[in-house]
Structures are given as structure tokens and as C-alpha cells.
Amino acid sequence: MSLVVKICGLSTPETLDAALQAGADMVGFVFFPPSPRHIGLETARDLGRQVGRRALKVALAVDADDAALANIVETLRPDILQLHGKESVARLRDIKQTFGLPVMKAIAVENVADLAPLPGYAAIADRILFDARAPKGATRPGGLGAAFDWRVLENLDLKLPFMVSGGLNAGNVAEAVRVTRAGGVDVSSGVEREPGVKDPELIRAFIRAARATQELSVR
């Protein structure tokens, strides 16, 4: 099975085009105002049209209510909803039923104990994203550029597709895939010049490095 590569937090036509031309499988758009990658609905509409069917569109939301999700779905027409907050298993179920879209649940990981909620989420979600736990006192979720100890996932027995995120870049993505045996990788800050500002060349370099892990695995 080929590695799924997701570039998240895209916000301009130029960087989105770089991701699409380089062969990203998923492109992510952030709908969370505290994030430097947040985009408004009009921008989302334009970027969504630019994507067309060239990649899967992923809408990232954090503890959003139904009204906010409805606006996102109507405007972006995403293929997947990425829930990156403290959504409960019941909330996941409600969102899937309400919007009829696949759901990817992000789980913050620092140690093995953080995997305890996994069975409940895996029973509902279509895909799991393991991300680094936010530092203490952070105002938004995610690793914020830091990686977690990938060995936490070494003996993971999960039938559901899963991805890893948090602190990935072109230099370490191969090791992350080797250790976790993840079916997908997700990068945001690792392809940025500064917070929220993607770099087209870093995007291309990351996708090249991620694809190279596949070539190594089939030799």
C-alpha cells in the first residue's frame, strides 16, 4: 500500500499548487482562529476549487460546533473532516451521522498511556492521526513543531489506517515511517519558512523524501 502524504495548513494558491504538483495525496486547511494557518471561508472556497479532484481535501477543526462545521462543509466541500480537539467518541459519531463524511481523529501522544482512548475512537473514526502532545500552557493543540517518541507506536495493532504528525520534515520522515510503520505522514510547520508561511521548495523536498521511503521498502 502506498504511503499517504498530507500537507496541512495550506493558505495560498502558490503553496497549494506546489503541494499538488509535487503529488500530495491530501491537502489540509485549518479552520481554527488561534492558529497562524487559519483561513476564512472565502479563501477556503477559492482554494477548494483550485484543488478540484487532484487530491483529497481535509478540513481541520478543533472542537467546532455543528454550525461552524456546516459552513466549512458547504464552502470547502471537503473529502475528510479532521477533528483535532477534545472531541469525544460520541461527538465523533454525531459528526459522522450529521455530515456523512469520513472522519480523521487526531490523538495527542507523549507516552503509551496516551493510547488508552484509541479503541473507542478507532471504532468510529475512518482514520487516526497520531500527533505530538502540545507543550504545557499551549493555546492550541498539536506538537507545534515538536516530534513525539515514535517508539510509542512500535507495537501498535490497529486495523484502521493511521498517520503520524508532529515535528516531521524532509530529514526525519523516513525514520518516522520506519519506526511506526504508519500508512501516512502529515506535515505543517516542517515545510514553513515561518509560522503559517509555507515554502514551496520545502514542500517539494518533503514529498520527495516521503516518496523515497516507499522506494526503499519495495527493494
List keywords for this structure.
single chain, TIM Barrel, alpha/beta, 219 residues, 7 helices
Describe the structure.
The protein has 219 residues and is α/β, with parallel strands linked by helices. The chain has one domain: TIM Barrel (Alpha-Beta Barrel), CATH 3.20.20.70. The protein has seven helices and ten strands. Strands 1-2-3-4-5-6-7-8 form an eight-stranded parallel β-barrel, surrounded by six helices. Strands 9-10 form a two-stranded antiparallel ribbon. Helix 1 links the parallel strand 1 and strand 2 (26-31). Helix 1 (13-22) packs parallel to helix 2, helix 1 (13-22) packs parallel to helix 7 (200-217) and helix 6 runs parallel beside helix 7. The longest helix has 18 residues, at 200-217. The radius of gyration is 16 Å and the shape is globular. The model has no long low-confidence stretch (mean pLDDT 92).
